[in-house]
Amino acid sequence: MAGDITHYFPKVKAAVFKCRVPLAIGDAVWVKGRNTDFRQTVGSMQIDRRPIERAVKGQEIGLEVFKDVHEGDGIYLAKT
Asked: InterPro entries under this entry (predicted)?
């Protein structure tokens, strides 16, 4: 598992994500939870409202998501 979603902001379609592995713009991810199941490419990430290109293990980042997610959903690196 690449990490967990700890919060979701539906108006801006952004999730707060605690990284367990490095993550970069362009990586393919799979968002999976009890009611969530979709894949997407990472297009936008932020720390303290500042854009970043890559995140490292342990960082908590803002991640743009294309569908609704829920606290506790997992994010996995997807094979391309």
From this structure: Transl_B-barrel_sf
Summarised one tens digit per residue, pLDDT across range 47-72 is: 999 999 999 999 999 999 999 999 99
Gap between the Cα atoms of 45 and 61, Å rounded = 7
Q: How far is CA 10 from CA 14, 42, 64, in A?
A: 7, 17, 10
| 3-77 is a CATH 2.40.30.10 domain | yes
Q: Identify the band that residue 79 occupies on the pLDDT scale cut at 50, 70 and 90.
A: confident
Query: What is the DSSP-derived secondary structure letter of residue 49?
Result: T
